[in-house]
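Researcher: Good morning. I'm working through a list of sequences from a screen, and I'd like to move beyond sequence-only analysis. For each chain I'm collecting a predicted structure so we can compare shapes side by side. This is the next one on the list. No need for commentary yet; just the structure.
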Amino acid sequence: MSAALKHALRAGELLSEAKGQLPHGAFGPWLAENFAGSDRTARAYMRVYSHREELEAQSGRALPL
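Model: Good morning. Structure tokens for this chain:
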């Protein structure tokens, strides 16, 4: 697995966890304060993380987090 995919999975996991701990509407401001990338990048990482099972199925092996 590429280092970029590992990074995206881990970042997506952490961002999803942070979003789950925030009240509705607070994620955007939290991202601006705590994430060096763009909102679009953060959401792409979270999308990769949310589709990790599909990625595992396509690769034929478990993805490490």
